[in-house]
Design brief:
Strand content: 25-35%
Helix content: 25-40%
Radius of gyration: 26 Å
Low-confidence stretches: none
Shape: elongated
Mean pLDDT: 96
Number of helices: 18
């Protein structure tokens, strides 16, 4: 029995099936994403969505969808499904679905009378090419398949309105045609492994509605261009393979290409395998290096998210080479900023104050996994460079004071991961001494001290770090630990923010913490009581002022709620680390049970992955980006940690 399998009853119930999305990527920035019934519900959905370097590396929807019809005895049965203006669904092809299986590749089984047809989709690794294989399992009469491509050629966050500016030419290529609707775009090659009959009938289809965008209060209606349709007769037991790509392909190679790609897939037969597949989907390799995307469908390459998610999405799934490749690209960007102050053209936010601290944390995880000696060999220079940079107070927005504490300014621009902003100002104006910044700083110092032991070249720096730690530890406790047993979120001059937020979980979950075991437990108790949910830690306690549990409403309402209530799974990784440090082996079964809440999500939202955030109140619905790198990484780290306890 498949781990990810959905039967007819769920698939024909649009209230359920439209809420489930599937995602496939090529690890080079391109992706395919839609609902499990192949009805696009957001403008970022599409059969082939690719980054275009010449257009600021933003992603663009080329092929939005493909309607397939079964034709027998002159009767046509359209298997497609779209939502049109007024909430009208047509042509209701979902009623023919008998099963959807996503264990290896997305596989939909249709039954139309005596016809049984399967559809399987697969992305070619590191190539802008999607293959769809249609197999006629059963048929009692001559059968023909009709393929109607619907084209967008637009940026993922924009919408198309019918216009006369497009290029209507569709020159024929081997077993297909190519199209390029607007200048600056690559050609889209649509080809088959069997020779089709091409019928050129160009026209606009108007009034597509995207349900998710309607719910989000953003523009949600567009028109799509249909240049014509293909027809191919198909026999029982025969397979037709359709290719959509940005380069021409030999039709004879499609079958072998499909089988070769299937052979290297990790089947989603378990919770771990689902997350492992999700983790690899965030990889992006191109001519500039290897990167980690923050998420889909609108994720970017962000410095903070890269370092936060790197250990979980590589080390925890035994992808050491990928860790080193992604770190090499990020290291180059960070070192360039440290030495020149220049921002990176691909990795956004390299200048944020906590980036060096998260980088050290990511290197620490490497040392724990592969040994201090390997870490010294590969990254000692980077660690020394970062620590010297910070100790010398050369960062423009992270200053070490006389007590060894680090201070930042975040009144006008968000500086931490809680980076929601409204009307140009931070929604949560965290400024001054931030609790996780100082905890990460203490952890970085302690790690660097251990790494430089016995290294003559770092003797003077090590002495300075030891002196800094000696004053930092009591200063941290005096600044953040309050009479109620938890940690203030930030302290600025005479103001100590009393909001109960999950940043304190980072402080107690790090390998080196300024708090002793008893103090950690007191903080952990508050986090457990007020922030813990089955989907991660709330970003704000329900008892704190301004609690907004649901990420719903207008863009402004969602921005206000973003860090004021909804839960984040990645924070559970630090919570689990803290819990196991406090309770040891006796806490293992509890953490293992808590993972059930995340495994349940494998069949919800974006199947096989974790959403960006979850409502802070039951039923803890997933919201935001459908697949998020830090969340997948946080849970993978926890699974890896539990394995050390032989769970």
């Amino acid at each position: 029995m498949s781990y990810l399998k959905f039967d007819k009853n769920l698939m024909i119930n649009l209230e359920q099936s439209l809420m489930k999305e599937m995602l496939r990527t090529n690890q080079a920035g391109a992706y395919h994403c839609t609902s499990v019934v192949d009805c696009n519900t957001r403008k970022q959905h599409g059969l082939l969505v690719i980054p275009i370097p010449e257009m600021e590396n933003s992603s663009h929807v080329l092929l939005s969808s493909m309607d397939v019809s079964v034709i027998q005895h002159g009767a046509q049965f359209n298997l497609g499904l779209h939502r049109y203006q007024g909430g009208v669904y047509s042509p209701n092809g979902h009623k023919y679905i008998r099963e959807f299986d996503c264990e290896s590749v997305p596989r939909t089984t249709y039954r139309v009378g005596g016809v049984i047809l399967t559809k399987e989709k697969i992305f070619i690794s590191h190539e802008n090419r999607l293959l769809i294989r249609y197999t006629l399992v059963e048929a009692h009469s001559p059968t023909t398949l009709r393929f109607k491509p619907m084209l967008a050629f637009r940026e993922v966050n924009q919408l198309v309105i019918a216009n006369g500016n497009l290029n209507q030419d569709c020159p024929e290529v081997p077993n297909g045609v190519s199209c390029c609707l607007y200048p600056g775009y690559p050609n889209l090659y649509m080809q088959f492994n069997h020779k089709p009959q091409w019928n050129y009938e160009p026209h606009w289809y108007n009034g597509f509605e995207y349900l998710k965008d309607l719910e989000r209060g953003v523009p949600y209606t567009e028109d799509l261009w249909v240049p014509g349709y293909f027809e191919i007769p198909i026999k029982k037991g025969e397979s037709i393979i359709f290719s959509a790509g940005t380069s021409e392909v030999s039709p004879r190679s499609l079958a072998k290409m499909y089988e070769n790609e299937i052979a290297i897939r990790t089947c989603r037969t378990s919770f771990f395998n689902c997350l492992k597949n999700a983790a690899k989907q965030f990889y992006l390799r191109d001519k500039d290096g290897m990167f980690m995307l923050s998420g889909y469908p609108w994720g970017k390459i962000l410095a903070r998210n890269t370092f936060m998610s790197l250990p979980g999405n590589t080390i925890a799934i035994d992808h050491r080479a990928d860790y080193e490749a992604i770190m090499a690209t990020a290291q180059k960007a960070l070192e360039n900023f440290i030495t020149t102050g220049q921002l990176d053209k691909r990795i956004q936010g390299i200048d944020l104050p906590d980036i060096p601290l998260w980088c050290i944390w990511a290197l620490q995880q490497y040392a724990k996994a592969y040994g201090a000696e390997d870490c010294k060999k590969n990254y000692m220079t980077l660690v020394g460079q970062i620590m010297e940079y910070l100790l010398d107070n050369r960062h423009p927005n992270l200053q070490v004071d006389q007590r060894g504490m680090v201070r930042t300014v975040g009144t006008d621009t968000p500086v931490s991961w809680m980076n929601a902003s409204l009307y140009g100002k931070p929604v949560v104006p965290r400024t001054g001494y931030l609790v996780e910044f100082n905890a990460l700083w203490y952890n970085a110092l302690m790690f660097a001290i251990s790494l430089t032991e016995g290294e003559a070249a770092y003797t003077s720096m090590r002495e300075l770090m030891l002196q800094t730690v000696e004053t930092l530890k009591p200063a941290f406790i005096d600044t953040f630990l309050n009479d109620y047993g938890y940690l203030f979120d930030y302290v600025n001059d005479n103001y100590a923010d009393p909001s109960v937020r999950p940043n304190m979980a980072v402080a107690i979950g790090l390998d080196y913490s300024p708090l002793d075991r008893r103090q950690r437990k007191r903080v952990l108790d508050v986090v457990t009581r007020e922030l813990l949910t089955p989907k991660g830690l709330r970003t704000l306690s329900p008892k704190s002022f301004g609690y907004r549990p649901s990420y719903l409403g207008s863009p402004e309402e969602r921005e206000m709620a973003l860090h004021n209530g909804p839960a984040r799974p990645w924070l559970f990784g630090f919570y689990a680390d803290a819990y196991l440090r406090v309770f040891g082996h006796s806490g293992v079964s509890y953490i293992d049970r808590m993972l059930i809440g995340y495994e349940d999500e494998m069949t919800q939202g974006c199947i096989g992955s974790l959403s960006q955030l979850y409502d802070g109140n039951p039923p803890f619905s997933g919201r935001g980006a459908i697949s998020h790198a830090t969340n997948v990484a946080g849970i993978l780290r926890t699974i890896k940690t539990l394995k050390k306890f032989n769970i």
